[in-house]
Amino acid sequence: MPATVTTCALLGIDAHWVQVEVDVAAGLPQTSTVGLPDHAVRESKDRVRAALRNSGYVLPPKRITINLAPAHLRKQGSAYDLPIAVAILAATGHTEATSLSDVVIAGELALDGALRPIRGALSIAVAARAAGQARVLLPQANAAEAALVEGITVLGVRSLREAVETLVGRHTPEAPEPAPHATPSAPISDLADVAGQEPAKRALEVAAAGGHNLLLVGSPGVGKSMLARRVSGILPELALTEALEVTRVHSVAGTLGRQPLIRTPPFRAPHHTVSAAGLFGGGGSTPQPGELALAHHGVLFLDELPEFRRDVLEGLRQPLESDVFTVVRVGWRATYPTRVMLVAAMNPCPCGHLGDPRHECRCTPHQLAHYATRVSGPLLDRIDLHVNVAAVCSGDLSGNRTGEPSAAIRTRIVLARARQAARFGADTSITNARMSDRLLRAHAQPDDAGRQLLERAMTRLGLSARAYTRILKVARTIADLAERDTISAADVAEAIQYRSLDRPLG
Question: Is the pTM for the entire model greater than 0.85?
Answer without folding.
Answer: yes
